[in-house]
Amino acid sequence: MHERSLKHTYGVVGLLVLLFAITYLDRVCISVAGPRIQRELHITPIGWGWVTGIFILSYALFEIPTGALGDRIGPRRVLARIVLWWSVFTAATGAMWGLYPLLVIRFLFGAGEAGEADGPLAGRGHATGASQ
Hints:
mainly alpha
């Protein structure tokens, strides 16, 4: 039984590392695509600063409420919500046609992605057997 528990632990940790890598790449990709997005949507450098800043602002504002939600409904459900929200707003970011719609989407994106760092970790003691 111990060997099976250890395999489960490594599997959970591996999936969490993958999640963190994907969300990191997500944050980097908008910076890489930034010059082209600015050119296509005619966004000034100040406007682009708002695009990147609004994500950080909403992420920070919703981090603690999302953590509290994870405590109330469980990390699995919160993580599912984060992945769904992330997927929808990744696609929506590519469909934007101007600065203000992009600002709204990036704000909602940050709000939805908030909690990805601590949400799945809330249940790690049980998932990895550390609580035993």
